[in-house]
Specification:
The complex is a heterodimer. By secondary structure, chain A is α/β, with parallel strands linked by helices. Chain A has helices spanning 43-50, 73-78, 96-103, 110-123, 125-129, 140-152, 170-185, 197-203, 221-224, 228-234; strands at 3-14, 17-28, 32-36, 58-63, 66-67, 81-84, 158-162, 189-194, 206-211, 214-220. Chain A has a six-stranded mixed beta sheet with strand order 6-7-8-3-9-10, with helices on both faces. Chain A has a four-stranded antiparallel beta sheet with strand order 2-1-4-5, with helices on one face. In chain B, the strands form two sheets. A two-stranded antiparallel sheet of chain B has the order 1-4. A two-stranded antiparallel ribbon of chain B has the order 2-3. In chain B, a hairpin with a 2-residue loop joins strand 2 and strand 3. In chain B, helix 5 runs antiparallel to helix 10 (212-238), helix 8 crosses helix 10 (212-238) and helix 11 crosses helix 12 (266-282). The longest helix of chain B has 27 residues, at 212-238. The chains are: A alpha/beta, B mainly alpha.
Chain lengths: 240, 337
Amino acid sequence: MEKLLEVEQVETCYGKVKALKGISFSVEEGQIVALLGSNGAGKSTSLKTISGITPASSGTVRFMGEDITRLSAHKIAARGLAHIPEGRCIFKNMTIRENLLLGAFTVSSDAEKKRAMDYVFDLFPILGERRKQLAGTLSGGEQQMLAIGRGLMAHPKMVMLDELSMGLAPIIVQQLAGVIRKLNEAGLTVLLVEQNAKMALALADYSYILSTGSIVLEGKSAELQHNSDVIKAYLGGDRK
Amino acid sequence: MKQSTSLRAFLGKRSTQWTGILVVLIFAVTLPLYANIYVIGVAWNALFYMLLALGCNVIVGYAGLCDLGYSSKVAIGAYTTAILMKTFGWNFWATLPVSILASAIIACLVGMPTLRLRGDYLAIVTLGFSEIIRLVARNLNVTGSASGISGIKSPVIFGVKFSTPWMQYFIFLILVIIFIFVSLRLKRSRFGRALEYMREDEDAARAMGVNVPRFKLLAFVIGSVMGGLAGSFYAVKMGSFSPSYVTFTESAYILLIVVLGGMGKTPGMLLGATLFIVLQEIFRNVGNSRMLIFGILLVLIMIFRPQGIWPDKRPSFLPSRRERKQLSERTETHGTG
């Protein structure tokens, strides 16, 4: 299968602090890949580096074979790589419709925008019902749906989801995971960043485990689920 | 509660809004028929500050950039027109395109390296730039050094000299209407939406494909050009222009109107400018303690209406108390918080 996203020896610094110490991983087309790790492991930084918000200080990021390491964020987004940031980052004082329109910012045709919006409303009917409501009045789960919907508006080839499950009830997380799987089956490539390892491993085909800025373990999710180190570190102590 | 929601619905109606606009417009157009010279003078001053507030609003309100040197942008337009007319004998109207161009170029030069700064740092840069403009103008011969340029000839418009008070009033009224139109169009355009997203959350906007530096610069340039144009008209109205205009106080007044009226709200700018000028006139006999009263008023407004005096946008979308209650009940039962 073709590699859609390739990250090679990427280092990212915040001032003098190295948040990523030369990580390499790749995502194949049509895959769901998860980046796991605890707080401060560099998960969110990886996504921000790929999407150009905090550019890498060294190494290369390739998307569809093109080097995007030095491209600015808006150009990367225009290439079909959507980033759904941590904490949802929706615009609470704007309506759901306006929030979705931001996702289609790089799309110029009105018909295309309309089609994308119908697609999102089809995926999350609750958003369609409330399209004129302010986004701040939505519940946490609905806000996450809106964030995902916004990421899908420009018809991306790949989405990067940062902490999908953050602050959400398990039942909502399950529901969203179902949507991600459905989107994946329809051809979308997904890169997940998660603290909730159980959910991520169940969803992803392949997983990487990050710790303090380096990748310490990788493998097929099904295998990692039975790996004793992973179980110890992420799936709750010594449970068999 | 019930009364306030019905009032809200009444104010939110299209027909009410159009009637309101019509009444204000008729009042503004017919004002010179029954007002004396003093009132027209005050009204002109209010119109001038409306222009400045509308221009500054593009930078401060729309783009969320803190600008503490707006008076320097007015000065660039005023000096361009004054120099071209006085030294080179140009026609007033011919100086306007040059004034626009000069404002835009200088805004680009200042904006490109500095707009990446956020918040306080940008405020300091704009403040510093304003000081540079003032000092340069005071020390150059072409700008007439400290005494400035005086004796700028008044242009003739449709056979009427611009120096007639009611003519000045009408020209500025037309300018204000043009600026309002531009502001509203900008706000509803793709550009306006980009700025709104950017102001709310810059990182999210960038991740979604908004070219943030470009839109910031564009807002800065548009706001500067509007200030420059207002300055050009100000120069011919006053017949002179001197560096003493470019002060921090003047910039602070403009910013004050923008914040007082409600950042980003066009009607708020008009209301803020009117209030600012009218209050100044009312308290004129109080003398120097005028600004003290002004300060107290400002603090009170900021306490009771932190979003500015103009009502919040889109009241119909804001949930009423009842809707809020339903909403919180719904989220509680679903437990999705």
